[in-house]
Amino acid sequence: xxxxxxxxxxxxxxxxxxxxxxxxxxxxxxxxxxxxxxxxxxxxxxxxxxxxxxxxxxxxxxxxxxxxxxxxxxxxxxxxxxxxxxxxxxxxxxxxxxxxxxxxxxxxxxxxxxxxxxxxxxxxxxxxxxxxxxxxxxxxxxxxxxxxxxxxxxxxxxxxxxxxxxxxxxxxxxxxxxxxxxxxxxxxxxxxxxxxxxxxxxxxxxxxxxxxxxxxxxxxxxxxxxxxxxxxxxxxxxxxxxxxxxxxxxxxxxxxxxxxxxxxxxxxxxxxxxxxxxxxxxxxxxxxxxxxxxxxxxxxxxxxxxxxxxxxxxxxxxxxxxxxxxxxxxxxxxxxxxxxxxxxxxxxxxxxxxxxxxxxxxxxxxxxxxxxxxxxxxxxxxxxxxxxxxxxxxxxxxxxxxxxxxxxxxxxxxxxxxxxxxxxxxxxxxxxxxxxxxxxxxxxxxxxxxxxxxxxxxxxxxxxxxxxxxxxxxxxxxxxxxxxxxxxxxxxxxxxxxxxxxxxxxxxxxxxxxxxxxxxxxxxxxxxxxxxxxxxxxxxxxxxxxxxxxxxxxxxxxxxxxxxxxxxxxxxxxxxxxxxxxxxxxxxxxxxxxxxxxxxxxxxxxxxxxxxxxxxxxxxxxxxxxxxxxxxxxxxxxxxxxxxxxxxxxxxxxxxxxxxxxxxxxxxxxxxxxxxxxxxxxxxxxxxxxxxxxxxxxxxxxxxxxxxxxxxxxxxxxxxxxxxxxxxxxxxxxxxxxxxxxxxxxxxxxxxxxxxxxxxxxxxxxxxxxxxxxxxxxxxxxxxxxxxxxxxxxxxxx
Length: 798
Description:
A two-stranded antiparallel ribbon has the order 1-2. Helix 13 runs parallel beside helix 15. By secondary structure, the protein is mostly helical. It contains 34 helices and two strands. It is 59% helix and 2% strand. Among the domains are: 148 residues, no CATH class; 133 residues; 211 residues. The termini are far apart. This is Nucleolar complex protein 3 homolog. It is found in: Nucleus, Nucleolus.
């Protein structure tokens, strides 16, 4: 008979297909989880079994009960064990042996009351005992136990001992005291010793200490410079002398160490930036020489970093008026230390622009440009001007301009104008001009294969191919990556500079920074984007018409406008007549005093207004400027007169009909109105340049030469023409060449001749014969004779 059929049906393949993937995945996870649990239980059982076997092998027979003994009993046992048996009597020895035999075989102490089964609580008691122990033990006086010979009485043997305090060695006491209060001891001992000395002895002691420190600095510095790779660790010793604690020599020693470390770093620093090694590079094995170089570079970077941190901390201590705990350096000496530290940072910034932490030095020095101490601020501003002049790539200039922008914005534009004046030293103008020339220059075109096959023979194609390959290599060498990078950096730098200027023009129009902003705009106006021209011209015109600007500021505004219009703004349809009138109105305000330095701005404006824009300037306007310039040349210094006459000469060459001013004839109706401030309507054509005749008797020889040249019509050839060294120079160059800032004339001016007064000579002084006879008769008459003029008068009446 067949076995009964199971009622539970097996799932068919089709039913398995209907089962969801999630359910199958859950079943698989449950099966794996069960297998892991089973394996885990098996591992635990095997582990317990191994531990039991190991314990059975190692375990030694233990007493059934363990009891805690009182401290008196423990000391007694230790004492008995330490006693020498050969010095004891036989009765005592027998008694002790009998006492030992009375104990159980498991050394059970019947006097103890501890329970027998206390093994389970042992581990917990151990943990509790550790928890009760304080984390930091209180200092207790150490005691030494000295055992004496025991005493015997009726009860038995009584051990004898006593305790005494342990006296520490004096060396340990001194070390602890120095560790706790090293600075206090030094300053308590030194004043007592110094007060006992006389002034001469103290000075002699100071000189000896200084000589000792100088020798140490020289020894460490020469060791590092002679062999930097092997003696790089000496820098740490030298840097430790920056913390000199002796108040007699602390200030001088710290200054010497700062300067010495600066010179050492300038000497041993490589000409590239040292990057940190990666983990893979550190793990690889290298040669001994390579490892030595790596250690040198790592040590150099770390010591340079610590040195810069020490300099920065010195400056912070001075700025925060904070005193050291050691009082080794007085508060009044902080300023001198800070100045030396700032000078060292400036020297390192200029000498190591390629090395690590250069941007960190810039961040430290830029806020000091706005310092209240004029000496510190001037030192930092001069350093950044030098940095801008010697920066060829533009990376250092970009980093500096970014920090300056952040400083101006954070201080809400309350900074000194010298901070923005340093931006005038940026070397961006030349590079941008080269870029424009290259972009407009036609590019070299190379022939393709079809053109070569069509126009050239086989041999010619071969030569042409080699020639084009060589030209491509030359072009790649000229247009190097560094040049493109430089142009990119300069463009970004200029954008930040204009951002600073435009922010001040918009938000701080009455700030003391406005003159520096206008001068900067005049300097970089030819690089401004064409989109900002209209807004900028309106802002500048509003500033000029407001009347709140000084002469110099107004001149900078005019220079900015005409620099823009003579460059990219030439395509704009703007009539700057108001700016012509403003400059014409300002010319009489200039004189030989303080405004004489503003003449150079006037000369630049005249070049942009008249010479470069001669096609957009009327003849009446040009003649009015020439007439007013000739008047101005009478009241300024000789170098300014030379520059103004040179500008008049350039205007007369640009407008040949200005020679009307050299004639006395009147052109047209009306007469000249010198007080009118409109150059178009002052009728300058009805005047003459009579000022040139006065200038021909000027004390400066170059002024006389220019005046005579202009009186002859400013010819380019002939006897009245100027020499090449004068005719080929611009008015601005002539102004700088013949400057009298050094209180000397160039060329030297001849002193006036010594003319003696003509003495009255008798007989040759008068020409009238009758008068001469009368004078002669009077001189020959005696003193007593009285002159009777009535007789003479009466005789003359008849």
